[in-house]
Amino acid sequence: MNEGLSPACAKLLHEKSRRKLTFSEIAEELNHDEVWTAALFYGRASPSLKDIHKLAQLLNLSAETLQEDFRTSGPPIRQVRPEDAHADPVTSPLRDAILLYAPAIRSVIWERMGDGSISLPHTKVKVEAQPASQSQSIKVVLESKYVPFQSW
């Protein structure tokens, strides 16, 4: 999962581990969601200059070096490699659930919202542990902007 990470991401993950911090704790300091924060650490989001300075202070890193590492690593990774999704015991069932229920999900959205598209750049992801029950349970929420298709 850490293969091919930029120097900035490798530093962040190393310092997170070394300091025994959680993404939730770091997210609180950054004033961001924990999933967005984790995405940043894996090169899937772009930090603001303010984020870089807060991270540098929290993790005792040079803000200038961290900023340069992010600049030279280029834009965030936006593509998904299918082989990654098949191998991971957490993301594979999520992918399979979306694919399995895609026609049903699309039909329900179409009935409620009309013909349109979900905007990936506007998508927020939340992960919630469900209250104790007979079995451990997790809730993954995807929230996004829905953009109607235009007629012309």
Number of strands: 2
Describe the sheet with the most strands: 2 strands, antiparallel
Number of helices: 7
Assign the structural class, choosing from mainly alpha, mainly beta, alpha/beta, alpha+beta, or little secondary structure. Answer: alpha+beta
Description:
The chain is an alpha+beta fold and 152 residues long. The protein has helices spanning 7-18, 23-30, 34-41, 49-59, 63-73, 82-87, 91-113, and strands at residues 116-129, 138-148. Helix 1 (7-18) packs across helix 5 and helix 2 crosses helix 3. Strands 1-2 form a two-stranded antiparallel sheet. The relative contact order is 0.11. The chain is globular and about 50 Å long. A hairpin with an 8-residue loop joins strand 1 and strand 2 (138-148). The mean pLDDT is 89. Helix content is 52%, strand content 16%. The chain contains 7 helices and 2 strands, in the order H-H-H-H-H-H-H-E-E.
